[in-house]
Specification:
The chain is of the alpha/beta class. It has helices spanning about 1-10, 15-25, 30-40, 60-70, 90-100, 100-105, 125-135, 155, 175-180, 180-185, 200-210, 235-250, 255-280, 280-295, 300-315; strands at about 45-50, 75-85, 110-115, 140-145, 160-165, 190, 225. It has a seven-stranded parallel sheet, with helices on both faces.
Length: about 325
Amino acid sequence: MIIDNFLENILQSDRRSIARAISMIESNSSLSVELLKKMHKNIGSAYRIGITGPPGAGKSTITNQLTKLYRKQNKKVGIIAVDPTSPFTGGALLGDRIRMNDIGMDPGVFIRSMATRGSLGGLSKKAIDAADVLDAAGFNLILLETVGVGQSELDIAQAADTTIVVLVPESGDSVQAMKAGLMEIADFFILNKSDRPGAQQAFTALQTILMIKDHDENTWLPQIVKTVASENKGVDEIADEIEKHKTFLVDKNLFQIKRQNQARIRIKEIVENKLKDELWSEDRENLLNSSLKKVVLGNSSPYHIAEEILNQFVNNN
């Protein structure tokens, strides 16, 4: 069977097959679903690290340096860089790909840019599927890099085992960072470009906010790692903090619970998306469009029309 042969190539870390599988996922190919079903028993070994933060914080430089460190440890690294618009527009992440050229030639590294495709949380559901492909292909670590652009970043926290938020002294005041939702999802913070003016004030402000959070011995308390990633300063400390968080999750029996919660959210989203696709058939789109005038004129309410559409859906299924 073609899928079985394809999967076997992926399990052998064939780069062309990995790239093709991710392209199939992006294009919503029906074969990609069959592939993901078959490969699921081969995933779960890779540790997934989410890296997010405002534009210009140096996430790609950190990803680059962290990858070099892991490669020295002979670990295979997959990188999924998630563009808030499209990886083909010449935007920021294409620039990041250029900066990552020195690791991109390494056979133990696989880099892919993907679009968010309208996902408000900043991480495409397709990126999570792509991470599964890299997991099955034998990559030890998968770095999911995305831009924190003001919306809730829950998506990345729900996809990663460890979530890192990268900030710089110029990121704005700490209250603004909290409003962006970044404070709540970080397993630890990186204060990059910490050689710049205002770095100590930013560090102190972050530390103050973290100290007032409720915690006990069973609660992970996020730390702040100072870095100057462009000079490779503080990168060892990032890797150490990732390992500390992983050890904490395992020791407190939270690792499996976290992955179960992630699976629960993912399954619900798959079900909801499938229902949405089935619900909005051509007939029901036509029913909706033909009812709009009645709603605007006050002859029917949106709730009446919604119930009519749902009733038709239920009766036809």
